[in-house]
Amino acid sequence: MTILVIGDAIANQREAETPFRAGTMFKVAVNLAHLAREVRMVTNISEASDPQVVRDYAAAHGVELLLRPATSPVSAASNPLSA
User: Fold this and answer.
1) Which domains, ranges and CATH numbers included, belong to the chain?
2) Fewer CB within a 10 Å sphere, N or C end of the chain?
3) Closest CA to 80 of 27, 29, 3, 39
């Protein structure tokens, strides 16, 4: 079974000491992948955040990102993501 998640995948600009922060739906996608589900996520990633961090984290946790261009600014998340 493949699960499609549609929502935010956000990486805040951060200092080296600050943990990676992600949007709520991104955390849902990662948690589903940890339950041995095939997960695809439709999202946009602003170049103003840190898009490579989001891509790397998704890949490391088995989430396939289906990206669409960010045509407007995205909001910032405030909840740290724990692995």
Assistant:
1) 2-12+20-68 (3.50.50.60)
2) N
3) 27
